[in-house]
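ok so I'm stuck.
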Amino acid sequence: MNDSEFPAPQSGFAVTHFLVVADQDRSRGFYQSVFGATVVMERDPVILKMANSWLILGPVRGEREQRLGRLDSGPHVQAPVNLDAVAGDSASDVWITGQYFDTATSADEPFTAHWNGTAWSSVPVPVNGAELFGLTVISPGDAWAVGNNLNGTAFTENWNGSSWQVVPNPAQGLLLSVTATGAGNVTAAGHNTTANGPTAAIIISWNGSSWVNDTVPVVGATEELFSASAAPGGTITWALGSSTSSVGAVSSMLLRNG
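replied:
not stuck anymore, here's the structure
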């Protein structure tokens, strides 16, 4: 695969669709023959590129594994890998993140894999007991993945071009999304949570040297953020989520910074 084949438009943005299918081979053939999709990965999961989109077709498995693709990531992996995010900055620099069950630790462990333009390869993560949900790639030497440790604290790590490094952050809770306008302007979003569910929205920002808490408007009894997005080189960051009133009414919440 070369840069001319990568589904990144001159303007606008590329979209990634995750689908759970009963028959990967039949579904792959359908998108090839009907829509002219190009196969990047044959199965487990099927990865296709089509127009300005990536299409990932995961197999139907158990309830916990409905967004899965099977990627062998180590000798202790006995179950498929949960794939939760994909991002890249060129045809030869694409990452996917998620988690898998490690039989050695009897716990969920973080998972990352890199596409170099020819093949996928798993890349070790220097931490145990964490889940990765959000991902952004700034350059071949700079990417961020976010999620949570299994003890309930937010988790952030940075790819420095040769390895993933855990970076401390002040958030308590769950980070679900991360976006960047550049190396010194990264934003992650999520929410605090208890046994009863989400309580308050979280936004933290990377200023080039450390993560800091951002002020989030209080618009309901509880808030949660699912997604954050920004254009590379831009000045505006958006965050999307929902709020719940004291009487249980749920409203959409859209935040803008910049």
